[in-house]
Amino acid sequence: LGGDEDAWPRIEGVLDRARVLVCAEMVGGAERCLEAAVAHAQARVQFGRPIGANQAIRHKCADMLLRVEVARSLTAYAAWAASVGAPDARLATAMAKGIVGDAYRRVAEENIQIHGGIGFTWEADCHLYYKRALGDESWLGDGAYHLDRVARLLDAGAADGRDR
Asked: Is 125 helix (H, G, I), strand (E, B) or coil?
């Protein structure tokens, strides 16, 4: 990897690429949770109408969609930045990892809520996505670590006189 001076930046680059891959996995899981929640809301009938007709369920699904789309956009940009060696690749990766893990966990939680009682049983896969979300969120640094990293990278950019 080189001498003492240049080994850590190379290791950090490899870790950032691994973080982008974890973010891509989390986006896929969050998308699947959203699909499952919408399908269940359309199929589950209560009091003579689908539960998806209730405004509260619609709002949950809309919030889930927003989180999935933000996660997808951040991950796509971080993947691009890491692949071309953009100057803000470390910042983009930290932003993605800081936000995407939280988004996946919250979408998985809402998926369980929409499914109701069966959401945390073996009859549905909701609990498996939730458990995976918890593990992926902390893998290679949790959201708090990466949001702190974003602040440090932005502070370092301001100290260098660069605009970020």
From this structure: coil
Q: Which two tokens stand for residue 44?
A: 């589950």
| Alpha carbon distances (Å) from 117 to 66, 114, 125 | 25, 9, 12
Q: CA-to-CA distance for 114 and 50, rounded, in angstroms?
A: 12
Which pLDDT score is estimated for 119? 82
* 67 CB burial (10 A radius; 0-12, 13-18, 19+): buried
- Mean local confidence (pLDDT), 152-160: 77
From the list 137, 153, 142, the residue with the least C-alpha distance to 91 is 153
CA distance 98 to 18: 14
Q: 45 has which bridge partners?
A: 50
Q: What is the reported pLDDT for 163?
A: 42
> For the CA atoms of 106, 110, 111, 113, what is the dihedral angle to 10 degrees?
140
At 76-105, the pLDDT tens digits run 999 999 999 899 999 999 999 999 999 999
